[in-house]
Design a protein that fits this description.
The protein is an alpha/beta fold. The chain has seven helices and five strands. The protein has helices at about 20-25, 30-40, 50-55, 65-70, 80-95, 95-110, 125-130, and strands at about 15, 45-50, 75, 115-120, 135-140.
């Protein structure tokens, strides 16, 4: 970054979290905490869906720990248009909504991000079918 300009010289890093990635963050996984620290420093964005928040909840982690992680994670707004886009992605990939609904919503969120986008997931094969090549799909 150039001094005084306030302009970012490198594309923003964006990490999109699936259920397993979010669960790792809440459980204190070092790599996930590093990514959250980048977000807190303004060097990256970390985003997930509201559905993923519900899916990742297991009751074993304190509310304070959830609040700390969520203070560093953006939660995308998901409405009717995003649902339509997710449904279209499922249709194009030949996948069923019952099993792949949340993955499809995460794919929609990942597709609309700018910069260097990486989706962190335990479902690499599923998400690779739903995402363009510009989005990196990384196993956690």
């Amino acid at each position: 970054m150039r001094k005084g300009s306030g302009a970012r010289t490198a594309p923003l890093r964006v990490f999109v979290l699936d259920c397993e990635a979010l669960s790792l963050a809440v459980r204190g996984d070092r790599m996930m905490i590093t990514r959250l620290a980048l977000a807190a420093q303004g060097e990256a964005e970390v985003i997930t869906s509201p559905l993923t928040l519900v899916e990742a909840y297991d009751g074993a982690i304190t509310e304070q720990r959830w609040d700390w992680v969520l203070s560093r994670v953006d939660v995308a707004t998901v409405g009717k248009e995003e649902a339509r886009q997710a449904r279209r992605l499922l249709a194009e990939a030949g996948l069923h909504g019952h099993k792949y609904a949340i993955d499809a919503v995460l794919a929609v969120i990942a597709r609309r991000q700018k910069g260097n986008v990486t989706i962190l997931t335990s479902d690499v094969d599923d998400l690779e079918r739903l995402l363009p090549e510009r989005v990196v799909v990384k196993k956690v």
